[in-house]
Amino acid sequence: MEKYFSTIIHGDCIEEMKKIPDNSVDLIFADPPYYLQLPKGKRLKRSNGTEIIPVDNDWDSFESYEHYDTFTHAWISECQRILKPTGTFWVIGMYHNIFRVGTIMQNLGLWFLNDVIWVKTDALPNLNGRRFTNNHETLIWSVKSKDCKKYTFNYELMKKMNGGKQMKDTDWIFGLCRGNERLKDENGIKAHPTQKPLKLIQQVILAASNKGDVVFDPFMGSGTTAVVAEALGRKWLGVERDEKYVHLAINRVKDFIAKKV
Amino acid sequence: MEKYFSTIIHGDCIEEMKKIPDNSVDLIFADPPYYLQLPKGKRLKRSNGTEIIPVDNDWDSFESYEHYDTFTHAWISECQRILKPTGTFWVIGMYHNIFRVGTIMQNLGLWFLNDVIWVKTDALPNLNGRRFTNNHETLIWSVKSKDCKKYTFNYELMKKMNGGKQMKDTDWIFGLCRGNERLKDENGIKAHPTQKPLKLIQQVILAASNKGDVVFDPFMGSGTTAVVAEALGRKWLGVERDEKYVHLAINRVKDFIAKKV
DNA sequence: GCAAGGCATGAATCTACAT
DNA sequence: GATGTAGATTCATGCCTTG
Question: Which of A199, B50, B52, B189 has its CA 20 to 30 A from that of A54?
Fold first, then answer.
């Protein structure tokens, strides 16, 4: 286990998790593919003619709900296995996928503590006036099983961060990841399509882990979990399937450590 | 069909829906049992010693997730059948049940428009400091199938009600049903454990139906959907299994009509 | 240097119509 | 019916240019 810490493993998360012992991580944060089912190749345009770049990456493509469910069941059951009885497991998603994710979690015996709503402050408006603006994502917060009562939750810290009042599942109000925080490629284009804001992950890690705890992320992407865990003195470990993102995340963490020292 | 309008049918909603023709209702609002899985007989107490009355009614008891799913699949597939291609179907729930409900809806081919968050302004605080305050419920808004594009949505009205800006899925901020609005029995105790606020149902009906449309509610409970539909000039129809609530709702609607005239 | 305004852009299940 | 093209539509934020 120890040899792994503070590294991003390039590989399939299910295969890599199989190498991790039972009951060995304190906190899991997972940002899996959402299976958006957007039409391939079609681009929505703003009135000024600029295009909206959708998430139509290969990693978000599945043949059917059934295929998505099989994949989801596989990685979630590994997460459940490696999670300590005192640990907690977070998954983020949207209405496209979160209901399926939640059902599979319950079927596996994971026990829900909350469904937390990340309310966005600067989401893309609905461009055709046929729906309500899609302005939030949902985080499911769970424990390994119903009888896990002694999980880590820094209630008082959350209360303090919320101005002295008990933090609610709807008090998670953050902007999207943009500006200088958003990683860009050599052409100035966003380097990862779904980079999450530091503040969001920070709140998760502060709420549900302590210094020295092991934080695991099966879909490391641009490495936000790694940077926040490193900054907050947690041990961490991540898996990422796409080599391009592995390099992105490793460099990001290196940069962060270099600037800190 | 016509003979049914503006009535509350006493019976099992699945059996009663079977009598309703295909493609015949414009809007369905459903507030099904949440399957809270609270321990029977246990009562939480406030610090002043008073008891919190939980929802532990028989209608919320199921043997297992599987039984809940079977029941859910049955009533939702009937709703899908009776819904017009131009109509929309709303279901409200919490983290205990909404993920299962959403998965079953997707499996049946219902297509999601939004998941709307009802943010409460006066929810019960978390009493033991082991979770975030549970401050919202989730409404899934859907159409009969993916290809139903011409559904009713009063976009401009919603925008106007939201101060001239596009209404978001997180702009649904209402207090709980309390005070004079909350129905009481002869002893002054709440007459129905989960009575929904008028404002919430009003926003649903205003958003997704027009005058003269048919609104259906398979779990009528205290009759909130009936009262709002009546007030807004919609035709309506409801089913309720518990005879006590049927009488409650009928009297409530009668009172409402009497006061209006 | 500072204020004002221009402009780019965000996990998006788009709609209507013609062929 | 399936497929392709044109069209209408939006809000908050932050960086950058201009004055």
Answer: A199
| Within A 35-94, residues with CB less than 7 Å from strand C | 35-39, 42-46, 48, 50, 52-55, 60, 94
| Structure tokens belonging to residue B42 | 């246990």
Give pTM, 2 decimals: 0.96
Residue A146: CB atoms within 10 A of its CB come to: 11
Q: Does at least one atom of strand C sit less than 7 Å from the CB of A222?
A: no
Map out the domains of chain B with their CATH numbers.
28-210 (3.40.50.150)
Dist. CA B224–CA B8, nearest whole Å: 12
Q: What are A138's strand-pairing partners?
A: A93, A117
- Note whether B114 and B172 are within 8 A (CB): no
Please write the tens of the pLDDT for every residue from A23-75.
Answer: 999 999 999 999 999 988 788 888 788 889 989 899 999 999 999 999 999 99
Which of A103, A105, A113 is best to mutate for the B interface (most B CBs within 10 A)?
A103
**CA A80, CA B76: separation in Å to the nearest integer?**
31
Q: Are strands B25-30 and A214-217 parallel, antiparallel or unpaired?
A: unpaired
**H or E element at residue B238:** strand B235-240
- C-alpha span between B148 and A59 (Å, rounded): 28
| Confidence class for position B261, pLDDT limits 50, 70, 90 | low
Which residue is associated with the tokens 């934080």?
A215
Contact A201, A29 (CB under 8 A): yes
Residues in chain B: 261
- Count helices and strands (H / E) in chain B: 7, 8
